[in-house]
Amino acid sequence: MAGTTEWDLDEATRQIKGSLRDENLTRAAELLASLGAPELISALERLDPKTRAVAYRLLPKDLAAAVFEGLDPALQGDLFSGLRDEEVARVFAGLGPDDRVLLLDELPAGVASRLLRGLAPDERELTSVVLGYRPGSIGRRMSPQYVSTHPELTVAETLERVRARIDVAETIYTVPVLDHTRRVVGVVSLRDLLRTTDPSVTVSELMAPPYSSVAGSPAEAAARRCADLKLLALLIVDEEERLVGILTVDDALRILEEADSEDQARIGGSEPLRSPYLSIPVGRIVRSRIVWLLVLAIGATLTVQVLEVFEATLSQMVVLSVFIPLLIGTGGNTGNQAATTVTRALALGDLGPRDVLAVLAREVRTGFLLGLILGGIGFLVAALFYGVAVGSVIGLTLLAVCTLAASVGGAMPLVASALRADPAVFSNPFITTFVDATGLVVYFLIAKAVLGL
Question: Domain count of the chain?
């Protein structure tokens, strides 16, 4: 059943659940063995923790190792609680140092210490190298397992080094070139080594300029650099340009996916789940959303306060209340569009906090033009049904609100970045709340001025 369709996978997962529920372990093992590693990962993500642990223990050892490595770290941690100590130790030892560190972050401190003590000395040392960097840095996500060469070595000698470490190196397709102090002086690809017909050619004749990031730099920035440069591997160095590890393109893409998921969750007003949706208990989903909802509910009281202040104005002309959802909705959407665009540009490295004035100038013009178009349409429709005066209030309010919302929406992510806060936190939810309150103030002030209330 390898290469199954999504429907086949759903059916296979249902049958696996049924077999395990009926304690038909032979049938469950047959079903699991019929799936490839990617399908098994998806199937395990859909099972509850207890059933997942039983299903995992039915997998052949080699396949179990590949499946475990493909699971999210949070799921790996949950799975450990359902395995025997000897199984846990075997799986943990089979992971790469960078994957071990991600898993250790999900485990209780006592369990993590015990697992580290159980490693072979050389594996424990490699893992400790990665653990030595602060969470969120690229040093924490790099692999210290690589194969390197020196400028004076020949192609034949370098290929021999590659063969000697082919089973332990994270990748062999990008080979760093180091001097005798371990400083990076270049990089050579396996392709160039293999297509060189003269094995006595030295590496110095083939190597290209290296691309690297400092181990203490943010993981997302380094991963973005790797993706933008379309590298198979980015070299990770210390402050003195000495090589300490590498970041492969698959790990870079995983980091970017995690960062994008986190941004999208916070833009939508919740905390990232960090695990597949179907594997997460409902209580955890509630916890990821409730705090934000409470904060936004408190912020929404600003809108209530504004309505109370202008209660007399509304009572004099009740028709004004008809347009409140339209105006605050349009303002919120305009601000969200600007915030999302700028937050994405920040993530891609296209913008920085220093660009706040340039962004503000562009968003003021953009908001004004959007407001001009929407305000013109709003004026015509409102004037047709409620008269020119009311139409003028709606048109002018849309013009003002769109300009204000786009300006605030564009500037807030940059201000957050300058304050070293997550721009996504200051994006859509808070901007919508701010624009709702200020938009109503603008609306009623314009109404009082135009209608003479």
Answer: 3
Distance CA 167, CA 191 (A): 18
CA distance 331 to 119: 57
Phi-psi bin for 307: left (phi > 0), alpha (psi -120 to 50), beta? Answer: alpha
184 falls within a domain: yes
Do 258 and 321 share a domain, yes or no? no
pLDDT at 299 over 70: no
Q: Which SS3 state, helix, strand or coil, does residue 265 take?
A: helix
High-pLDDT (> 70) share of the chain, %: 93
Cα(41)–Cα(47) distance, rounded to whole angstroms?
Answer: 10
Residues 37 and 125 in one domain: yes
Residue-wise DSSP of 87-149: HHHHHHHHS-HHHHHHHHTTS-HHHHHHHHHTS-HHHHHHHHHHHTSPTTBGGGT-B-----B
Q: Which amino acid is at 313?
A: T
Task: Answer yes or no: is 327 within a domain.
Answer: yes
Given a cut of 50, whether residue 1 has pLDDT beyond it is no
Q: Which of 448, 339, 336, 321 is nearest to 396 (CA)?
A: 448
232 pLDDT above the threshold of 60: yes
Q: What is the pLDDT of residues 60-109, one digit of tens each?
A: 877 888 888 888 888 888 888 777 777 788 888 888 898 889 888 888 78
Based on the fold, state whether residues 345 and 385 are members of the same structural domain: yes
Which domain covers residue 167, as residue numbers? 155-262
Q: What is the C-alpha to C-alpha distance for residues 204 and 179, in angstroms, rounded to an integer? A: 11
Beta-strand relationship, 174-178 and 184-189: antiparallel
Q: 303 and 438 share a domain?
A: yes
Residues 307-341: tens digit of each pLDDT: 677 777 666 677 888 888 888 889 988 988 898 88
